[in-house]
Amino acid sequence: MFNINSFLHSDALGPAIEWKGYPKFNFIGGHNDNESIPITSLKESIDKIILKEGKTLAKYGLESGPQGYLPLRQFISKQLKKSASINCSEKELLVVSGSLQALDLVNQTFLKKGDTVIIEEENYGGTISRLRRIGVNMIGIPLEKDGMNIEALEQTLESLKKKKIRPRFIYTIPTIQNPTGTIMSVDKRKALIKLSKKFEIPIFEDDCYADLIFDKERPPAIKSYDNDGYVIYCGSFSKSIAPALRVGYLTADWSILSRILPYKTDAGSGSLEQMALAEFCKINFDSHIKILRNELKKKSDAICNALDKYFGSTADYNKPVGGIFVWINLPNNVDTSRLYELALKDGVAINPGNEWSINSSGDHKIRLCFGNPSIEEIDEGVKILAEICQKEFGIPLQIANS
Q1: What's the mean per-residue pLDDT of the chain?
Q2: Other CB atoms within 10 Å distance of the CB of residue 242
Q3: Which of 205, 236, 273, 329 is the most buried (most CB within 10 A)?
Q4: What are phi and psi of 4, to 5 degrees?
């Protein structure tokens, strides 16, 4: 048989594992609640828009150009003004194939091997893996209950300046930080902008979970305080509407966006999805988000109740204020990488903390996503996880009955 290995370059990625379906208790990935997908409204939107503008599918870009479907960009512009206090025109927006493509485009534009990037020390696994693949030097800033430690950030920037090292950008997830769930305070957002200007370093603001705050008011985006074009802002419909639509967006001053755009060489993100979203969102977005937040809050309560019931005080966590995940600190004797392997054999998928941290701070932590499992599956899955922990690591001391 043909052997591909001798034809691969030295830094080629390892082979993919054959997918055999999702585990029964799936607490990984940014999946939504099945029942919260607005199927009827999406169908009505598709039926309406396909008859109205379907013939524009004959052209790349739908006659809207390479930045994405114009009515969708117009909606995003209005929505960002209303929800995040960002002033941007449709000309300063680029529709992308989910926030992961946004990450790739910004990385391609700004980074090469050996560069330095500043991130929160506990961070989105997809960001960490991408930066490692490029060969970037990541410097982690500790997180506090109200976001990145600004004093530590300033000290780091001063130290790097003395060494004549200039970070390419500061990457932050300020609202429903992934994986910790923290929300950066307004004071820290303003302080971050000041540091960005002082040291002349761009900020890459990833705000993909910001629509999913349960009860608190959404704070203005960091970009809303930026008058000099330092902030590149990323948003997504994956968490607010549906992950499989694969629609996200970037906004930045045209001087920056015009340098990012040439790296988007896929001839445009899926056009039918953009058309359907534009039609859906102008009527249904706000009402849908309200329903989704209520359902996710119920699931958040369910996973917290299950953790308290089955783990007791051995699971240390902050109750989520939004989003779809909870970040859990387990006792030091719990190897969460080992726990991941054992749990998967029993049909429970979790994210081990070392994949979500650039240092040892995540070694005894796990991230559990509650967006997709039912409330019954959440309870049963957490119970199984506790039983594995008790058998393998001796915690908790006993398991409560269902």
Answers
A1: 94
A2: 19
A3: 205
A4: -75, -25
**Residue 397 confidence (pLDDT):** 64
The token duo for 155 is 């000290």
Contact by Cβ (8 Å): 175, 208: no
Q: For 117, phi and psi rounded to 5 degrees?
A: -130, 140
For residue 328, the Cα-to-chain-centroid distance in whole angstroms is 18
As a whole number of angstroms, the distance between CA 162 and CA 287 comes to 51
Q: What is the helix (H) or strand (E) element at residue 103, kind and residue range?
A: helix 98-110
Name residue 118's beta-bridge partners.
139, 170
Distance between CA 343 and CA 354 in Å, rounded?
Answer: 16
pLDDT greater than 90 at residue 401: no
Check if the beta carbon of residue 136 is closer than 8 Å to that of residue 116.
yes
- Expressed in percent and rounded to 5, the helix, strand and coil fractions of the chain are 50, 15, 35
**137 class by beta-carbon count within 10 Å (0-12 exposed, 13-18 middle, 19+ buried):** middle
pTM of the model: 0.94
